[in-house]
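To the wet lab folks,

You asked to see what we're planning to order before we commit. Fair enough. Below is the target structure as tokens, and below that is the sequence we designed to fit it. If anything looks off to you, flag it before the synthesis order goes out.
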């Protein structure tokens, strides 16, 4: 059966009229529909049960003033002290789906060095929003982390204010270093176990904070944290040894100092010979969070004190 051009035109005209009528109806419905403000929509979208995994992540949430939405934290989240009152879901690299889900989060903000991989994959498959916060131990990384977390929490203005405050704190800390001319040679000792020394090379939080505070990392042959030989320690000959405050048995600093003095390689270094051993809170020193300006100031003062 054939259809004439005249019939096709009449059919097209009817469809056009129908579509126009529908457009009018939709337009009328939209004009009578109550509008939801952007602020209300944003408020509605905010996660209300937030789990923080990573000490710096937790610190940023507190610094943003959004701690009332936290329902849990990992065991590395020890600052501010009030954070330790939150349920502890486990160590950042030894998470379990059961532990994480026990606090019923609707948003998980996790520093990237989380694990184990299998557990994290299970958690990401549950439908709970999981956001990885980059492990970028630089000043730019701090700024990015604040931006990401503020955006996920829907508090953009607070995020901008915190970014400016942290940048100002760091700039002030760096200004105070202008009068410090000495550049001490520093070795960061992560662990000393059975005479084996685990230290920091390039591209680490320890390396970066040493440089920001005006020191020089004496270990540059590799990136990351690795065990080094006694010969490498002797050749490095650091002026200062930097360590984290210990916990448990390692909290006895006199006992640890005795181990350093008895170590066949460390005992030869100017650092141990002169008692130049600096210890700082690990999260403050290596966290690269809102307190990094404070960390730079404290470490630079300690470097300068040992160089007098």
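Sequence we intend to order:
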């Amino acid at each position: 059966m054939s259809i004439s051009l005249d019939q096709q035109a009449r059919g097209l005209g009817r469809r056009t009229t129908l579509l126009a009528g529908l457009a009018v109806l939709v337009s009328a419905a939209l004009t009578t529909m109550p509008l939801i403000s952007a602020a209300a929509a944003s408020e509605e979208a905010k996660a209300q049960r937030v789990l923080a995994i990573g000490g710096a992540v937790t610190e940023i949430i507190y610094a943003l003033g959004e701690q009332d939405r936290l329902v849990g934290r990992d065991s590395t989240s020890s600052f501010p002290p009030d954070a330790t009152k939150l349920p502890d879901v486990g160590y950042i690299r030894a998470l379990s789906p059961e532990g994480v889900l026990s606090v019923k989060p609707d948003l998980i903000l996790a520093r990237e060095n989380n694990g184990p991989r299998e557990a994290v994959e299970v958690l990401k498959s549950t439908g709970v929003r999981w956001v990885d916060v980059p492990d970028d131990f630089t000043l730019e990384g701090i700024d990015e982390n604040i931006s990401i977390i503020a955006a996920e929490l829907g508090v953009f203005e607070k995020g901008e204010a915190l970014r400016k405050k942290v940048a100002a704190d760091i700039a002030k800390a760096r200004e105070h270093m202008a009068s410090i001319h000495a550049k001490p040679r520093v070795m960061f000792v992560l662990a000393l176990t059975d005479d084996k020394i685990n230290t920091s090379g390039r591209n680490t939080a320890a390396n970066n904070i040493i440089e920001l505070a005006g020191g020089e990392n004496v270990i540059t042959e590799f990136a990351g944290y690795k065990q080094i030989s006694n010969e490498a320690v002797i050749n490095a000959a650091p002026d200062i040894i930097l360590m984290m405050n210990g916990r448990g048995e390692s909290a006895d600093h006199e006992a640890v100092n005795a181990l350093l003095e008895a170590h066949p390689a460390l005992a030869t270094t100017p650092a141990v010979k002169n008692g130049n051993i600096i210890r700082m809170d690990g999260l403050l020193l290596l966290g690269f969070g809102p307190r990094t300006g404070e960390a730079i100031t404290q470490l630079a003062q300690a470097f300068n004190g040992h160089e007098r």
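Structural context that might help your review: The chain has 13 helices and ten strands. The chain has two domains: 46-176, 180-307.

Thanks,
Computational group
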